[in-house]
């Protein structure tokens, strides 16, 4: 994902709309999830061509357990199958697989496949694909606060020394740069508990296209929109 530099170093996507994509075709929701999973590698490849180094995909939220057990089971099976079948492609593309979220709660088969692929790709340097799995922004901040509180209690860090950088260092992956751009597909105008800390100053782009149909052309539209934004970070517009 890093052939030529892009103004967007880190792109994060809320992959929404698999269910509606399927409904419109009179298919089961799980067929939409399958089509969505098939789109992941295409977009990863597009990111590589466009010079985007980090791609983070919201694949399963801490709230998605509320769905019917059969749908949750199908999503976990898809995760397992995705890793099983696509690991050679990740290797070929020299992409490092990464994951954020409460991974311990994932079913064994999916978790073990995931951890195995993370390990197998750990030395790859062509880009980083991060899957947000059983991920919630609030859960991440809660987990960070807990670990920080423990370290304060054990005297490893003084309360007076806690800064924004300190808290950041307790996030699931402190090395991940903040995303410059966050895309949500399928038209909903909300964050749904994604990357709450990291997207404090991200540019948002909402696409009406359902995730399985979101392609390189749509991605380019989002990047063009990003290119026309004036990012002020609380300051004043550059002349
Ligand atoms: C996104 O598609 C995938 C997950 C949340 C796992 P949805 O399943 O949310 O699709 P819609 O929003 O019902 O269309
Ligand atoms: C957000 O989509 C989560 C993922 C894409 C994994 P949802 O479909 O779960 O979000 P809501 O329920 O519409 O907010
Ligand atoms: Mg949805």
The portion of residues forming beta strands comes to: 15-25%
Bound molecules: 3-methylbut-3-enyl trihydrogen diphosphate, magnesium ion
The class by helix and strand makeup works out as alpha/beta
Helix tally equals: 7
Name the poorly predicted regions: none
Major β-sheet strand ordering: 3-4-2-1-5-6
How would you describe the overall organization of this protein?
The protein is α/β, with parallel strands linked by helices. It has seven helices and six strands; from the N terminus they run βααβαβαβααββα. A six-stranded parallel beta sheet has the order 3-4-2-1-5-6, sandwiched between helices. α1 (18-24) packs across α2 (29-50) and α3 (69-92) runs parallel beside α4 (108-120). The two termini are 32 Å apart. The model has no long low-confidence stretch (mean pLDDT 96). Bound molecules: 3-methylbut-3-enyl trihydrogen diphosphate (2 copies) and magnesium ion. One 3-methylbut-3-enyl trihydrogen diphosphate (IPE) is lined by residues 15-20, 60, 64, 75, 186.
Explain briefly what this protein structure is.
The protein has 7 helices and 6 strands, in the order E-H-H-E-H-E-H-E-H-H-E-E-H. The protein is an alpha/beta fold and 239 residues long. Helix 3 runs parallel beside helix 4.
Characteristics of this structure?
single chain, about 240 residues, alpha/beta, binds 3-methylbut-3-enyl trihydrogen diphosphate, binds magnesium ion
Element layout with pairings:
Elements: E1 10-14, H1 18-24, H2 29-50, E2 54-61, H3 69-92, E3 95-100, H4 108-120, E4 127-135, H5 137-153, H6 164-168, E5 181-184, E6 203-206, H7 216-227
Parallel strand pairs: 1-2, 1-5, 2-4, 3-4, 5-6
Helix pairs in contact: 1-2, 2-3, 3-4
């Amino acid at each position: 994902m890093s052939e030529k530099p892009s103004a967007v170093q880190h792109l994060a996507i809320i992959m929404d709309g698999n269910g509606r994509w399927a409904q419109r075709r009179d298919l089961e929701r799980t067929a939409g999830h399958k089509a969505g999973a098939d789109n992941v590698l295409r977009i990863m490849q597009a990111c590589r061509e466009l010079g985007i180094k980090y791609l983070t995909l919201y694949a399963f939220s801490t709230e998605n357990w509320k769905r019917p057990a059969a749908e949750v089971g199908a999503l976990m099976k898809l995760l397992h199958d995705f890793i099983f079948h696509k690991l050679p492609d990740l290797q070929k593309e020299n992409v490092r697989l990464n994951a954020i979220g409460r991974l311990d709660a994932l079913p064994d088969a999916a978790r073990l496949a995931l951890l195995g692929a993370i390990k197998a790709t750990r030395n790859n340097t062509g880009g980083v694909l991060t899957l947000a799995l059983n991920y919630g922004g609030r859960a991440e901040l809660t987990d960070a606060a807990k670990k920080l509180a423990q370290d304060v209690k054990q005297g490893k860090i003084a309360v007076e020394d806690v800064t924004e950088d300190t808290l950041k260092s307790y996030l699931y992956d402190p090395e991940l740069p903040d995303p410059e751009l966050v895309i949500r597909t399928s038209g909903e105008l909300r964050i749904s508990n994604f990357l709450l800390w990291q997207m404090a100053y991200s540019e948002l782009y909402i696409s009406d296209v359902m995730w399985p149909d979101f392609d390189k052309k749509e991605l380019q539209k989002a990047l063009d929109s990003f290119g026309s934004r004036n990012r002020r970070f609380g300051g004043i517009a550059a002349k």
